[in-house]
Design a protein that fits this description.
- This protein is mainly alpha-helical.
- It is built from six helices and no strands.
- α1 (about 5-15) packs across α4 (about 50-70) and α2 (about 20-30) crosses α4.
- The longest helix has 27 residues, at about 70-95.
- The two termini are about 30 Å apart.
């Protein structure tokens, strides 16, 4: 289960609340604020090894959660799917509007789809 820094940062947004406050703060400073182990150690009054251990435990926790429940993966898939639907609906509107015999039914349906997509994005 190897993940890059960007993936860990993304997973922190989903699962950061399951970590202890200190663990979450350490990981946020490391992954989001790009602080070194030494800088974080100074901030918390612990050793660099203590920081590294907290980060490794936090990584293991959030990676394990993602593997078991997959919220971040499903959210990413849903967002990509909604973006694809929005683009397809805009394409339908474009083709319909640039056709000699524009269909009012197609226009209304495409607008209804866009309305649903925007409601999903606002939720």
């Amino acid at each position: 289960m190897v993940a890059n820094s960007l993936e860990i940062s993304y997973l922190l947004d989903f699962y950061g609340d399951v970590l202890t406050e200190k663990q979450r703060d350490v990981m946020e400073q490391y992954y989001n604020d790009d602080l070194s182990l030494a800088e974080i150690a100074d901030n918390f009054g612990i050793t660099r090894q203590g920081v590294r251990d907290a980060i490794k435990r936090g990584e293991h926790t959030i990676l394990d959660l993602e593997e078991k429940v997959g919220f971040a993966r499903r959210y990413r898939i849903m967002r990509e799917s909604v973006e694809s639907l929005e683009q397809l609906t805009n394409d339908i509107n474009f083709y319909n509007n640039n056709n000699y015999a524009m269909s009012e039914d197609i226009r209304r349906s495409a607008e209804a789809i866009l309305h649903i997509i925007h409601r999903m994005n606002d939720a």
